[in-house]
Write a structure and sequence with these properties.
Layout lengths: L2 H19 L5 H6 L7 E4 L3 E5 L9 E5 L11 H22 L3 E5 L15 E6 L20 H13 L8
Antiparallel strand pairs: 1-2, 2-3, 3-5, 4-5
């Protein structure tokens, strides 16, 4: 493939990613603006909770910041705090509404983590025994505990790194 062709494809792809992340065309920004339908559970100045359109289980819903952030890697810290409080409320509400065996809160940060909609959202997913949903673990998972010095060393690396917004 020629360099020119490669660059053309690359920039087309980059453009489509930018478009997807842009407030104007972002699916969840459209929900916030009321341009597409959603079954809203609650909203306040900064956050909104609505039903997932493809629920994994009864009660599966999403919590988002109203302002456009792609995920936890770019979200404003103050907004993250508000989301945290609302997430606790939403999780408890779903729990008392349906009394599932458990509830899982999931955030996919980036395509590599399975994020499809590039607007930060937390899944609130009721879980029940035998519901066939879950994380997939490698076959050898938990065969051996990680050595403590290795865990300490990785913890040190994370502790010493700055977050993407520039604070320690
Ligand atoms: P994720 O893979 O973490 O990005 O999840 C995106 C979620 O958004 C999926 O569970 C979809 O079912 C859900 N979703 C996509 N479009 C809509 C929509 N218009 N209204 C509600 N949920 C949606």
């Amino acid at each position: 493939m020629s360099l020119h062709k490669f660059r053309t494809i690359y920039f087309k792809l980059a453009q489509s990613v930018t478009d997807m992340s842009d407030n104007e065309s972002c699916l969840f920004c459209k929900i916030v603006r009321g341009e597409i339908p959603a079954s809203i559970i609650f909203e306040d100045e900064f956050t909104m909770a609505f039903m997932d359109i493809f629920p994994i289980s009864k009660g599966h819903c999403l919590l988002i910041p109203k302002q456009h952030y792609v995920n936890m890697l770019d979200v404003d810290t103050k907004i993250a705090k508000r989301l945290g409080v609302r997430l606790a409320e939403l999780t408890r509400k779903v729990h008392s509404a349906f009394e599932p065996d458990g509830i899982i809160n999931v955030i996919a940060n980036g395509v590599g983590a399975g994020q499809e909609v590039p607007h930060l959202h937390v899944h609130v997913i009721p879980r029940n025994e035998g519901d066939r949903f879950g994380f997939m673990f490698p076959d050898d998972y938990r065969e051996e505990m990680a050595p403590r010095d290795e865990l300490d060393s990785v913890a040190n690396i994370i502790r010493a790194s700055t977050d993407l917004l520039g604070s320690k």
